[in-house]
Amino acid sequence: MSDFFPEEIIEKILLRLPIKSLIKFTAVCKSWSSLIKTSTFVQSHLCTTIDSNNQNDAHLLLLSAYSRSYSYPAKESISNEHHWLRWDSPEFGKYSKLSNPFPFFTYENQRRDLRVFGTCNGLVCLESFDPCTRDCSPALIWNPSIRKIVMLPTPPACLTSTEYHNYRKYTSHGFGYDSHSNDYKVLRVVSLSDDHSNLSRFTTVVQVYSLARGSWKRLCASVVPVDLQAGGSERPDFVNGCLHMLEIRLSVYYDDDHQEHRKCGGDSFIAYFNLATEVFGEIMIPEALRKDECSISRYGESLALIKNKCYNLDDPANCGCDIWVMKEYGVAESWTFLYSIVMVQATIFGFKRCGEVVLEETNVLRLRRMLSLDPKSGQVKVFGTEYCTYYFMDSFVESIVLLDHAKAISYQGEIKI
Question: Are 13 and 24 in contact (CB under 8 A)?
Fold first, then answer.
C-alpha cells in the first residue's frame, strides 16, 4: 500500500480500524508493526475510538461478578470470576463476555481471589484477595481487548513494627489515568486502625504505583491526611483525573469509664487524590448528609452521593436510598437532590448515560436481584444470574493500551500467576 498511499494516509486508515483487524495488521510488514506499537499511535487510536463512540453513542459498561463452585476430591470452595461488557444504553444489551487470561485458583494457590477494583481506557486493574485473612494487594493490569497483562511488583512492606502486631491492617486500592504524564497509576492506602489515641488517630501509609516507571513509591507522611482511612467496602471512584473516597472526620475524646483518650467519628467528607500532582484534597458534602450513612459513585463527569436508609417495619415507605448529584464538579454548593429509590435495600453499582441506575435489590426475604431502573418511569430490567454475586461496574472503552509496553505479557488461553 505504501506504493500507492503516503504514510500519513496509511496511518489515518489504521487509526480507524477495529482492534482485531489492527492486531492482525501488525503481521503485514515491519513498518506497520512498528507504527501500530508506538506510544503515539496507541494514544491516537484511543482518542479516535472515544470520539467515534461519542458520535455514535456506542458506549460500553464492564460488569464483574464471582460465583462459587467446589473442587473434587478436595471438596474446597473455589471462586470463579466473570466479566461482561454491556451496551450503556436503555436496552442494556449484551456485547460480549470476557474470557479470563488466568485461573483464579491454582493447585499451589487455592485460597486467593482476583477481584477488579478499577478500569480506565480499556485497562482493568485487579487485586489479589485472601478471603480468610482479608489480605489484598494489587496484582495485575489487564487489557482484555488485546489479550495482554502486566504483572505488578509486590508493594513494599509497611507498618511492620512490632508495636503494630496487635492491630489489623486495612487496605484500599484505586486505579486511574494521569493525562499530564500519559501514565496509569495505582493508589494503595494501608491503615492500622484502633479506637485509642496513642497511635495518632490512624496510622496510614500511602503508596503509588506508576505503570510508566514500573515501580512503587511511598508518599511522604506529611501529605497524607490524618483522617484518611483504608478498608471501606467502596472502591475509589476515578473522576476528572482524581480518585475519590468517602471519609469520616475523626476526633478524640476522654473516656471517663476507662480513663483514657479514645477516637470517634464525626462528619463525613469526600477526600480526593490527584493522580497528576499526587496531592490530596477535600470536597464537602451537603450538611444535612454529613452524619448519615452514605456512599459515592461516579455520575458522568461528576459525583453522586447516595444516602442509604435502613428498612423499618414501622415505616416501610422510608427505605432504599436518596440520590444527590454534584451538578458542577468540585463545587460543593452545586449538590442537588435528584430522586429517591424506595425498596427494602438498594446497593447502587452506577449510573448509565441515559439516566438509569444499575443496582442490586434485596427484598424482605433477603433474596437479591440485579436491576436497571428508570427512576422517572419506575420501569426495571432484571438481568444477571442468581448464581453470581456482582461487585463492580464502570464504563469501558476498547483500546490497544499496553501494546507498546515492554513488560506486557501476551496470552492465548489461560496462564498461571
Answer: no
C-alpha cell read off for 14: 489504521
For residue range 263-292, list pLDDT tens digits in order: 666 789 999 999 999 999 999 999 999 988
Q: Is 103 helix (H, G, I), strand (E, B) or coil?
A: coil
Beta bridge partners of 323: 306, 339
Where are the chain's structural domains? 7-54, 293-378
Cell readout for 57 is: 453513542
Task: Indicate the DSSP class of residue 399.
Answer: -
Question: Cβ distance 311 to 364 under 8 Å?
Answer: yes
Q: How distant is the alpha carbon of residue 307 from its chain centre?
A: 20
What angle (nearest 5°) sits at the alpha carbon of residue 208, between those of residues 207 and 209?
Answer: 125
In sequence order, the 6+-apart residues with CB closer than 8 A to the CB of 93 are 86, 87
Does residue 173 sit in helix, strand or coil? strand
Residue type, 391: Y
C-alpha cell of residue 339: 430522586
Nearest-angstrom CA–CA distance, 378 and 60: 23
Considering Cα of 209, then 215, then 216, then 220, what sign does the dihedral take?
Answer: negative
Whole-angstrom distance, CA of residue 395 vs CA of residue 120: 8
Reading the block at residue 13, the C-alpha cell is: 486508515
Residue 162 has pLDDT above 50, yes or no: yes
- Which residue in the block uniquely carries the three cell numbers 493525562? 179
Angle between helices 39-56 and 7-15 (to 10 degrees): 50
Sequence-ordered alpha helix ranges (H) in 5-121: 7-15, 19-25, 30-36, 39-56
pLDDT in tens, 177-210: 999 999 999 999 998 866 554 545 557 899 999 9
- The residues pairing with 269 across neighbouring beta strands, listed in sequence order, are 247
Locus of grid cell 470517634: 264
d(CA 3, CA 5): 6
